[in-house]
Amino acid sequence: SVSVERGIVVLEGLDTAALHLIMPEKEMEVDLSKDIVFADSDVPYEEEILRHPYQVKCWIRYIEHKDTTNASNTSINMIYERALKQLPGSYKLWYNYLKLRRKQVRGRCITDPAFEEVNNAFER
């Protein structure tokens, strides 16, 4: 079920398949008693992705939305990771994701752990 509490959308009662579609990077045991929380403005994009998980266009629209709302790098990276889990052969998603990851570490010290994360993304 979907409910709105203080401007935040809470999705409750998702089955394991739906939860892995929302957060596929989580390979550990899933605790369905916890709720997944999204901003109000994310709901239409999440619903569209649940309906059409294999359409690049849907993922790109969601990423552009998060970018225009000045979302954190972590949340944008999470959406890219989810998209790439569904569409691992998408050149467009990989190109944009790797370009973004390079931009995120630009100007940092080479010994910063973020560099290793970016290198690992390139090796996949």
How confident overall, as mean pLDDT? 78
Low-pLDDT stretches: 14-21, 24-34
SS content category: mainly alpha
Rg measurement, Å:
15 Å
User: How would a crystallographer describe the biggest sheet?
Assistant: 3 strands, antiparallel
Number of helices: 6
SSE topology string = EEHEHHHHH
> N-to-C terminal Cα separation, in Å?
35 Å
Percent helix, as a range, is 55-70%
Q: What spatial order of strands do you see in the largest sheet?
A: 1-2-3
Q: What's the count of strands? A: 3
How much of the sequence lies in strands comes to 5-15%
Tell me what you see in this structure.
By secondary structure, the chain is mainly alpha-helical. It is built from six helices and three strands; from the N terminus they run ββαβααααα. It has a three-stranded antiparallel sheet with strand order 1-2-3, with no helix packed on it. The chain is globular, with a radius of gyration of 15 Å. The protein starts with a strand and ends with a helix.
Overview features:
single chain; 124 residues; mainly alpha; three-stranded antiparallel β-sheet; 6 helices
What topology does this entry show?
Blueprint: E1 2-5, E2 8-11, H1 16-22, E3 36-39, H2 43-51, H3 56-68, H4 73-86, H5 91-105, H6 113-123
Please summarize what this structure is.
With 124 residues, the protein is mostly helical. It contains six helices and three strands.
